[in-house]
Amino acid sequence: MILDAKACIESRTALRPTIGVVLGSGLGAFADELAARLEIPYSEIPGWPASTAVGHAGKLILGKLGRLEVAVMAGRAHLYEGYSPAQATYGVRVLGSLGVRTLVLTNAAGGINPSLKRGGLVLISDHINMQGCNPLAGPNDDALGPRFPDMSEVYSRAFREKAKQVAARLGIQVAEGIYAAMLGPSYETPAEIRYLRTIGADLVGMSTVPEAIVASHMGIETLGISCVTNMAAGILPRKINHEEVLETGAMVRDTLVKFLKALLPSLAEAAG
Ligand code: HPA
For the domain 2-271, what is the CATH superfamily, name and number? Predict the structure, then answer.
């Protein structure tokens, strides 16, 4: 199936992307920056799960950023939508088959660490998988990666350093933190957030981790960027709603676009 998707995409464009970007809830604007753009709705790609979440466009965009050939996923499949771990990571597997060796995963996340601010950007330094499943469970394809892959640097240290340099140059503040992935779709309880804080999480969300595991398995070097769309449950004396999450995404959209535009060329340079 992955090879059918690859053949389908390659038959529609001469572009051969080496960098992939996954855009999270409300963060879809970056794709508009690409030149010589081809947009392919997920529904036209064999095996690709449709994205049902509000704020997710559901298309693959290929294009150029300067000389770089880039593949952007605007919208992803989440486990909370009922997709299997294999479906939730299908897009990243396809990007890998297209030749993507560098990946930027973005997401909307709740801030657990009280030093984080709503609207802030955070480089993911590591994750805690609380989703109760692993996308690598089941038969292993040895051609893609090892049975028991190391996960000690899922989020490239070199990329984080590059990202900090680029952010400083642009005057964009970035923090760094550990992302805990929950299944969702309900937001967490305050007790769950206290527990996540105790085990070392700075951020909480419902995506990214399956994709990052699969990318690491394939040897794709990855940067993760969370946009803090709200403070997590119980951190502030107020309720969380999806509108707030989308609203904050819209607030930081321009900053994130500016950041990604400057970042991608320097990640391509740093990729090793
Ligand atoms: N919890 C889980 N996922 C999220 C949150 C949150 O508070 N905000 C955005 N995605």
Answer: Nucleoside phosphorylase domain (3.40.50.1580)
